[in-house]
Amino acid sequence: MSWNSTYQNHQQVWGDKPSELATFACNYLQGIESSYKDMEILDLGCGYGRDAIYLARNIKCHILGIDNSSEAIEMARKALADDLESRIRFECHDFRQMTDGKFEIIFVSNFYQLLKAEERKALRNIIEKKLKPGGMLFLSTFSTGDPEHFGKGKRIDNEDNSFHDERFLHFCTQEELERDFSFLTIKELIKHEYREPRSNGEVHHHVLWLLLGCKLSQIEDSNGKRD
User: Domains, the chain, ranges and CATH?
Assistant: First the structure.
């Protein structure tokens, strides 16, 4: 099932409220926004823009949202109120086609789990390249403890904890995330359980990881310090 078809059939499939990661990130960023004149945020896999709009409404920031679904980007642009048009930009393309630019914040909500091993590696490379020194990554992704999807469908050969049911899904362990994001200082890695309402009336039960990682500043890196 393509994502364009998903959005055409279900529109705002997860509703218009913010994701679990957006709430987590907003609470954290509101506590430090006085240190920033205006945060530059990259939202990878932004979908129909619900998190970008929520973040822009609640913190001082400019946001670039990227998604490879043209249907999602069209929905996001239509949902963008006039007062936010100067602060949020949505683009339709693969994250690997990004041009120059660095960001204080990179935000990745429930996108990592949709990527196969080489794609996850490519995303980590983009994060490492695009995150400014001292910048922060906020990422959520399904845990191997997810009761809704883990173990369902066809197990993928040569890819631990990956399955294909309606679509490919990868489930992370704590050890995997700590290893694969070791280029960051991981400040928070929380296993989070929640109920997710869908536009069709279903409620999904999920367990995911909420990760907050920080890229060392140039001074910290040169001194070999890690907080």
Answer: 3-218 (3.40.50.150)
